[in-house]
Amino acid sequence: MKHKPEHVAVVGGGLVGSLLSIFLARKGMEVTLFERRPDPRSHSAYQGRSINLALSDRGWRALAAVGADAEVRRLAIPMYRRVLHREDGTLGYQDYGKEGQAIYSVSRGGLNRALLSLAETESKVRVHFGQRCVDADLEAGRLVFEDADAGRLEQRFDAVFGADGAFSALRSEMLRTDRFNYQQEYIEHGYKELSIPPDAEGHFQMEREALHIWPRGSHMLIALPNPDGSFTCTLFFAFEGPDSFAELTAPAKARVYFEQHFADALALMPNFDAEWAENPVSALCIIRCYPWVKGKVALIGDAAHAIVPFYGQGMNAGFEDCYELDRILSEHTDWHEALDAYQRERKPNGDAIADLALQNFIEMRDRTADPRFLLQKRIEARFNDRHPTLWTPLYSMVTFSDMPYAEALRRGKIQEEIMESVMKRPDIEALWDAPEVEAAILEACVRAFGHR
Ligand SMILES: Cc1cc2nc3c(=O)[nH]c(=O)nc-3n(C[C@H](O)[C@H](O)[C@H](O)COP(=O)(O)OP(=O)(O)OC[C@H]3O[C@@H](n4cnc5c(N)ncnc54)[C@H](O)[C@@H]3O)c2cc1C
After folding, report:
1. For 56, which of 142, 179, 262, 401 is 20 to 30 Å away at the CA?
2. How far away, in angstroms, is 13 Cα from ligand 1 center?
3. Do residues 61 and 12 touch, judged by C-beta distance below 8 A?
């Protein structure tokens, strides 16, 4: 390959940086991975906390490409369906996909440790912990690091990847350059983590292989299972306003609120008061920027496209960046052309998943509690069973396929319009599985997608 770099730096040893290092080393490059934190395998940073993420098909595909999937599968719990916890205490169920299809709950720390260990087994990867990138010359590929012990260090590389997350130091350097577009948007909601421990025998206190959700209109609580029998719960709640963190600063007030709105969850949270007082409220931010490549530096993962977490796709999108970059590098004979193709191909998909993730917040917190929405999902699932090549539910296109996110967004919009008109039929509750409803959807699909 023309201009192929020999020495490459990856800044950020999080989920995406550690996976990217493996891909690059296997392409024959000497990779140095810099992580500002101490080694999570020898440090207690993650111990005792079970923060988990939903891993789905795009993430698995990237992990499988470097042979990391089997190891990660041992850490993962499949979640086959949403369990809806209504305010009156009753439960509802919604399958994520077809039989056997699941998203997987994995511990962030466990996954990061596994990927770092795998990266270190590569002869071409060297990992430095405790080194924070504080300055960069993008054109020269020169990086400056602050090392807790050794002070300031400087090194030059043929190419650099910024995998340093939503508040990327390398992206900040790009901000000072000409014609760099940047947009940062905080949503009104933040989140706080709480937990449901296992019972006295160490068993799960709710259905294990499911994502639990308490949809409450403008806000929601969710819970994902951990291998130790506990659930990590996340409350997504407005910062300010009538139902908001600002109103519930004291644990006693929060307890009263939970008794009213999340009573079944609260009953399983013996540490509620302490966790409410101690766990921070964190903000949620969407970051869009372009170009992703400046001089010798390219951005990847959250550094290029930070999104809100409501589709469970941030990490999956970052892993897909690695997979697609690897493919693009194989298809090109010039390094610079390959990186340009990477940014041009991935940027629309980063934008699309950012939009989809925001849309899904409304679906999760509001629409999942609506019986008409659940009926719509049943009609879609039935149509998909009968015409699988013509219709795939949007959730499945995003979660259980490798269709580009931008294409999933486009098709999803058309399908939503079709469903809106079907749901307007006055007799839809009675006729939801009637041949005439199926025929109407079929006709609309043929009009929209042009084939049968
Ligand atoms: C509440 C919440 C829930 C989420 N749930 C999901 C989910 O279910 N599924 C999903 O797919 N995604 C989820 N995400 C998104 C996911 O966490 C991110 O997309 C993912 O972590 C991005 O990985 P990354 O490696 O790009 O960035 P990060 O994970 O942020 O890693 C960046 C790394 O770079 C290091 N670093 C930063 N600055 C420097 C520097 N200057 N020098 C050296 N090192 C540096 C950091 O220490 C860190 O280790 C969620 C996010 C949130 C906030």
Report:
1. 262
2. 10
3. no
Residue at which a domain ends, from 257, 283, 309: 283
**What residues flank ligand 1, with Cβ below 6 Å?**
11-17, 34-37, 53-54, 132-133, 163-165, 169, 191, 234, 301-303, 309, 312-316, 318
Whether residue 428 sits in one domain with residue 390: yes
Within this chain, do residues 68 and 124 fall inside the same structural domain, yes or no? yes
Single-letter residue type at 354: A
Please answer whether residues 51 and 107 qualify as being in contact, where contact means their C-beta atoms are separated by less than 8 angstroms.
yes
Q: For strand 305-306 and strand 282-290, is the pairing parallel, antiparallel, or unpaired?
A: antiparallel
SS3 category, 103: strand
The pair of structure tokens assigned to 29 is 């490059």
Q: Kindly state the tokens that stand for 440.
A: 């109407």
Cα 303 to ligand 1 centroid, rounded to whole Å: 9
CATH code of the domain in which 196 resides: 3.30.9.30
The pLDDT tens digits of the residues spanning 64-115 come to 999 999 999 999 999 999 999 999 999 999 999 888 999 999 999 999 999 9
Number of domains the chain contains: 3
Last residue of a domain, one of 251, 283, 315: 283
Task: Please check whether residue 352 is in contact with residue 408, taking contact to mean a CB–CB distance below 8 angstroms.
Answer: yes
| 11 and 117 inside one domain | yes
Using most ligand atoms within 8 A of CB, pick from 302, 322, 405 the residue to mutate for ligand 1. 302
Report residue 346 as tokens: 């991935």
Residue 451 pLDDT:
65
- Closest ligand 1 atom to 59 CA: 11
Q: Which two tokens stand for residue 429?
A: 């509750």
pLDDT reported for residue 48: 46
Domain residue limits at 176: 7-74+108-184+284-360
